[in-house]
Amino acid sequence: MIKQLLLSFLAGGIGIASAQYCVPDYTSGTIDDDYIDGVELNTISNLDNGPGDGSGYTDYTALSTDLTIGYTYDIYLENTLYFTEYYRIYIDYDHDEVFSSTEEITPLFTMPAGTNTTKTFTVPFDALPGPTRMRVRCVYGATAFDACNTQTFGEAEDYTVNLLAITD
Question: N or C: which end of the chain has fewer CB within 10 A?
Answer without folding.
Answer: C
